[in-house]
Amino acid sequence: MAQDFERTLTANIDTALADIRATSNSDDAIVGIRMANIHTSQITVDVAITDNSNNVTAYLIKSAPIPVGGALELIDGGSKIILQTGDKLRAKSSVTNSLDVVVSAVDTISE
C-alpha cells in the first residue's frame, strides 16, 4: 500500500494555541515537527494535542526555548506521534508572530 506523505506549513504563530495540523479525519502519524524562531529575541514554545472527543489537551513540550535564528526539531530518531480522528496538533509562542512550524505526516496509516 502506498503511503500518503503530507506537510503542513504554519507561519507567524501567535501567543494562543493555533492549529498546526488541522483536525484529523483518520489515524495519522506525525513524523516531524520543525519549529523556527523568526523573531529578534529568544522565544519559548508549546506544542500540544487536543482530543476534542473528551476535551483533553496534552502537551508534547511546554516552554521550550528557541534562540534567535534557531530552530527546534520536536520529533527525531524515527519517533512518531499518532493523531486519531478528531485530534488537533497545536502550537503557540511566547511572542506575537514569532514562530514558523513545518509538520510532516503520513495520512491514514490504518483503515
CA radius of gyration is 14 Å
What CATH calls the topology is: Jelly Rolls
Count every beta strand, where a strand is a DSSP E run of 2 or more residues.
9
Q: Order of helices and strands, N to C? A: EEEEEEEEE
- Estimate the mean pLDDT confidence: 90
CATH architecture verdict: Sandwich
User: How many strands, which pairing sense, and closed or not: the largest β-sheet?
Assistant: 5 strands, antiparallel
Assign a percent range to the helix content: under 10%
User: What is the level 1 CATH name?
Assistant: Mainly Beta
Shape: globular
Number of domains: 1
**Sequence stretches where pLDDT stays below 50 over 5 or more residues:** none
Distance between the termini: 12 Å
Task: Report what the structure shows.
The model has no long low-confidence stretch (mean pLDDT 90). It is globular, with a radius of gyration of 14 Å. The strands form 2 sheets. Strands 1, 3, 6, 7 and 9 form a 5-stranded antiparallel beta sheet that branches. It is mainly β and 111 residues long. Helices cover 0% and strands 59% of the residues. It is built from no helices and 9 strands. The termini are close together. The chain has one domain (4-107): Jelly Rolls (Sandwich). The protein has strands spanning 4-13, 18-21, 28-37, 43-51, 56-66, 71-73, 81-83, 87-93, 99-107.
